[in-house]
Amino acid sequence: xxALLVPSGxxxxxxVELLLRQLGVTPxxxxxxxxxxxxxxxxxxxxxxxxxxxxxxxxxxxRALRACPxxxxxxxxxxxxxxxxxxxxxxxxxxxxxxxxxxxxEASAVLRLRLAERxxxxxxxxxxxxxxxxxxxxxxxxxxxxxxxxxxxxxxAFVEVNDACTRLFGxxxxxxxxxxxxxxxxxETPVEPDRLSAIFREHGVVRGVESRVRAKSGELRHVxxxxxxxxxxxxxxxxxxxxxxxxxxxxxxRLLLADRMASVGTLAAGVAHEINNPLAYVAANLGYAHEELxxxxxRTPAAAPDAAPTEGPLxxxxxxxxxALHGADRVQTIVGDLKTFSRETQEPxxxxxxxxxxxxTLNLASGEIRHRxxxxxxxxxxxxxxxxxxxxxxxxxxxxxxxxxxxxxxxxDADHHEIRVTTRLVAPGRVAVEVSDTGAGIAPELLGxxxxxxxxxxxxxxxxxxxxSICHNLIHxxxxxxxxxxxxxxxxxxxxxxxxxxxxxxxxxxEQRPAAxxxxxxxxxxxIDDEPMLCSAVERILRPHHDVVYTTLAAEVLxxxxxxxxxxxxxxxxxxxxxxxxDFHAALQRLRPDLTxxxxxxxxxxFTAQAKTFLERxxxxxxxxxxxxxxxxxxxxEVLATPG
Length: 644
Description:
Layout: E1 2-6, H1 14-22, E2 26-29, H2 33-42, E3 47-51, H3 59-67, E4 75-80, H4 89-94, E5 98-101, H5 106-122, H6 135-143, E6 148-152, E7 158-161, H7 163-169, H8 173-176, H9 181-184, H10 192-203, E8 206-214, E9 220-232, E10 235-241, H11 246-303, H12 311-339, E11 350-352, H13 354-369, E12 374-379, E13 386-388, H14 390-406, E14 418-427, E15 430-437, H15 444-447, H16 467-477, E16 481-487, E17 491-499, E18 524-528, H17 532-542, E19 547-551, H18 557-562, E20 569-573, H19 581-591, E21 599-603, H20 609-617, E22 622-624, H21 629-641
Parallel strand pairs: 1-2, 1-3, 3-4, 4-5, 12-14, 18-19, 18-20, 20-21, 21-22
Antiparallel strand pairs: 6-7, 6-10, 8-9, 9-10, 11-13, 14-15, 15-17, 16-17
Helix pairs in contact: 11-12, 11-17, 13-14, 14-16
């Protein structure tokens, strides 16, 4: 490695020269500043050491060296006496990298010289010495798709910008020339140019640093910043490129949201399963108590007239139980909404006419809309059927319409507000359904969170914060996208993008469910569930109609079956510790295959891939937790009445 030494009258560089030779560096002395600049121009040095003069002023020499070809690549060190330390800062600001103090502390000096050597080696190669922006370069600059500008080294005024740069910032070329980024307020924050300048001083180049710039419209754009020194019109200038990352950042945000939703799905399935188990026996016992009390009240007037004074309190208890049942139903609805995150049920997708789904949904939402806003429908004529699911799309559209209505004040001024529903073909194979309102809008800082589970802008008690999250999940499961655009104080638009169908429309045939068998044979029923209170609740429901035996351990049933114990029906929980319902079914298949068709699975949510695959494979009936007494009795009667 070579080093250029520039002494001064007050600084003896001999100790530095001796140390450099010990480190294997070849030093070259220049007799004065002019000779130093000439030597550097002829053969640039990676390391330059400048002795401070008596006035402590080396700014002119530092700037002259930096302006030379390869001057930005060199490491420039100042050599000074301790009393000159307070004069070093202006030189460091002008481009010097570091300093050494005399007399030398050898360990410290060696470390600083090694750092200077590394700094020089890591700095990028400069532009060729004979570089000029000729006609070809001018064409490349002008036609480049990457936003590029050329600024002066002193003052940072724009001297040239290409078309991509004007498109990025939204200014005409004439508006930018000979003005600075500070004049045009192009950086997101005032400290950003200082941060980039510090990087430039440290490395001699800015290479791929992320930043955010502000366009003329006020829109913030994500960019990478690349800056370096180049000759332009015979003078060193700063060339900066701004590759636009905004679309990539938006895509990353959507992917991050998708990952977050997938994580929520895994969590929600487990939470739903754990809630459904206690909710099942709470709802079952409430239903049982309510029905028994109703039955008692129906019999009391005829059977025991003298008991009339107790009828009032019993009726109050009956009303309280009915309200508790209503609360349990609400919990069940919320848990059902949570389960949509886990995609437990992949309903079949087929060709769907979005106009028919929207019309049905608008009928449901009309009560919310008509007192708040005028409804405007704009259905495109060329909109093809989409690939989706009628009920799920109806759920999404209803949620969006109710949200739009609730965003508008209910002050009776419906003529001044509007909810607009639009369908159109946005691209081949892509249909857009938009729900727009003229309501309060959503604050920009909240837009990124509206699809997060349990996040809501509504007052407490009005919403659970699950609606938009569920809509996002349902649309994504159908291969679509859900986007939002909002202007605070002016309104919001939700856009649902769906793939067009590749198959023709089919008439929707209602699913035919077997009719419940009235009465039915009495049988011996085994209940297997790891929740003892759920077993008690099921036994209480079935006891008037069947002989019931229950256990919390599936494994202990197998020896009893092997010994010949008889059961007409088995109600078995799917997810249990030790031996689950799937393992029990497999053991039963080996031990008593005649009973496998008599198993009804109780499930609070098949939240594992194995459980989902199992339920898809076996034909056995299942009852979803929480269940009501009538549904459980109907399924039990149906299976018992089935031959074989």
